[in-house]
Amino acid sequence: MAKLLKRLLQGVLLEPEISSVFSSFDIIGDIAIIKIPDSLLIKKKLIGDTLLKNIPNLRSIFFAEHVGRRGI
Asked: Residue 26: which CATH number?
């Protein structure tokens, strides 16, 4: 799925916004799991709708939270 997301968002987002989007995402069955930067959280519905419209077998989009590891 590398770079597919960026290709699908051409014409939907501005070029600087596209360059900040992560290049890949995971698909598990009919669910896509994507990470988007905090600066684009206000456009997450637009990004999700674009994926649903362009990848026919998808039924749900989940946005992964930024998870960090904590050392002891």
From this structure: 3.30.300.110
